[in-house]
Amino acid sequence: MLRFKLKFLLKNKQTRLILMLTLSVSLLITMIGLFSYGEYRDALDSELNTPNIELLQINLDVTNRAFRESDNKAVDLSFHPAVLKYINAKTVDNVEISTEPQTYLRTLATEPDIHAISVIKFKDHSILSSSYGYKATWELAPDYAWSTWIEEIKEKPLLIKRRLYTGTDSQLGNTELLSLARPIVQNGQVTGAILIDLDYDWLFSKMYTHLSSYQFVYNLDGDLIYPKLNLPFPLTEMNEVLSSIDVSPFAHVKVEGQAYMANQTFSNVTGWRLISLVPMEQLLKNVTIARNMMLMLSLISIIVGCSAIYYYNFAAFRPLKRINKLLTPDQRAAGHGNLYDLEPVIGKLVGDFQSKSRVAEWSMPELRSKFVHDLITRSIGTQETETKWEHYFLGWEAGPFETIIVSIDRHAQWSAPYIEEDQMLLKYAMNNILVEYFEPSWRTVTAAPQKDGLVVLLQPKGQTSIILHEDATKLVEMLQELLKISVSIGIGRSASSIAQVTRSYTEAQLALSHRLYEGYGRVREYSAKLHDENTQAMDDSWKLEVIHALKSSDMDAGLLWIHRWAADTRKKGIQPQRVFRMVDDLLEEVLDIAVAGGHSLPVELADYTWYQVTTMDLSEIEEMLCSIVVQLSKELGQHRQSKEYQLAQSMIQYMENNLQHNIGLQDIASHVSMGISSVSNIFKEETGTTVYDYLTNLRIDKACELLQDSNMKLADIALLVGYQNENSFIRAFRKNKSITPGKFRESSKYSNEYADQPKPRQTSVSDDSE
């Protein structure tokens, strides 16, 4: 009987139609559910990956900063004369010599995160510590657990070990420590080590945590560093996670049967591996429910279809009427019923899918802008570039690309009348106008890596020929007309692939920099000629003359040198980037002079930034420099008449006349008939440096002249510049010039310039030219 009924139903035309429609609707619902789930999962991956990587990077920077500060101390100690003297001393002299370095260790160990700093001597296995002083052998130290691995420092430049405090101090019992060790190397041999014990809890208390994620820190050997208590997962499970993620920036893993997104980053300072696990169960809960509901609806639709077939054959088959009407609205079907309930279900599912697609589309411009910013600033690698390109730029071609830079002319003058909120609003309006202007013919992405303007990545739509220079010229005119903003535009050469956009951006910068000579409101395209011409070195003697004129209050001489420099630069057409750097160096020196002397800053330097120079043309730069020289010359001229200035000049003259003698602060104070405290304060205020440092610089500069211009022995030169001991002279010279006197003299034989030329002293006091 059942077989007969099925055969009868399948032969019926309307029954077959309902069956096909039922299966189609069920398949459609299933596909929409699975597709929505997949799209949501992909979007969630993209949105979660970036903030978690950024959080890990923040924590990485926190730990790196702490270790870098301690590492710098360890490195400085490994070269400190007192430490080296202790390392090289005989065992019988250890106690006598240990006093000075121990005082220095205690001074450095005052930071809250440092428990102790120790100097470990390999020759006789003695130790000197900031906490318990000198011990003749390692075993006598209250805490010598490090002795089992400290010898590894002979093979490695840096060791970081997690360990428990095992010393006799009851207050530190079982305290977790992170021990950082640096070798002391002399003549290619490791003769000792610097050991800094850091507080484990204090270091990791600075890490930022997220309520919904778990964070772990592993060392190079795969040992767990953080956390130390209340581990959320068994270590065996975490070892499987480490194997799964390997060296990938993120991956999906399962721990104890639960799904997690794992993100990781590596420290280039400690070699540590930072991992975060974000549980996906709650994040995917809603979309999983929605997917299951759609699958349930698909099943329900099949049941409804089967019920409809049954009702048609045994109850007039009324639902088919509505289905036929939906499928063929122009034809009138008669004698059939209604399946009206299916229509709102399908409409709701399609509406939900469109809503989620719209949210993803709205977030895409920000993701693309961040990608372009990271690309041109070289913040992402090749693999990450390719991955993000594939995800963020669907619908774009593989190439070519155009890169332009839109920069606001005279940015400092333009921004001065506006508060920061108004500046941002105007730049936002400029960005919108730019995007809308290029939209009809170009695919467009903008980014703002610098304060003075925007970078625009363009790709033409279709195969129609478009002249970018003409579009850019019209854009300049439009921004001037609508926003009253004068801009200049630089255009780089076309990039055949996304990897070459960075090169195109650099070329656009070079093209834009020729605003220096050509003026404002122009569009400039890069050419090889811009890169190759005028590569000759610039003569910076004018800068020294301007500084000298300022210090001498010779306003006319300063203005003359500025005009001379501007005319020479304009005539030679020096590459703009070189001009910008030279002007920036000059302004930095002028700022140092003004600040060191406590003088009021000219209005042009009150809020000086690099963009103040790079967005100006040569004429305005010349005018700005002249204004600064006029204002500072007048103020410095008044200052030169002060009693304090004359006293400082007298001290300097006395030091220069007595370099060969063993003079000190007391002698200088006696020369000007003042107290030591008053002399120190006046000299510091007038020159920006101490008497001792100034005298040392004078002696080393004089020694440089003698080393270059004579064949005198080092001992004789040391006496002529006030050092009674040759070794003291060598140490002072190396500390000041980062090179020994012998190597300095040797390098001067093969070059007309110093290997490390003495730099002019940046002070507010200069020699009188009168």
UniProtKB/TrEMBL annotation:
Q: Where are the transmembrane segments?
A: 16-37, 293-312
The entry's keywords: DNA-binding, Membrane, Transcription, Transcription regulation, Transmembrane, Transmembrane helix
HTH araC/xylS-type domain location is: 649-747
According to the record, the signal peptide region is none
Q: What is this protein called?
A: Helix-turn-helix domain-containing protein
Q: What is the lineage of its organism?
A: Bacteria, Bacillati, Bacillota, Bacilli, Bacillales
Pfam families reported in the protein's UniProt record? GGDEF_2 (PF17853), HTH_18 (PF12833)
Q: Which residues form a coiled coil?
A: none
Q: Show the GO MF annotations.
A: DNA-binding transcription factor activity; sequence-specific DNA binding
Please list where the region (Disordered) is annotated: 742-770
InterPro entries for the chain: CdaR_GGDEF, Homeodomain-like_sf, HTH_AraC, HTH_AraC-typ_CS
What is the native source organism of this protein? Paenibacillus monticola
Q: Where is the composition biased (Polar residues)?
A: 760-770
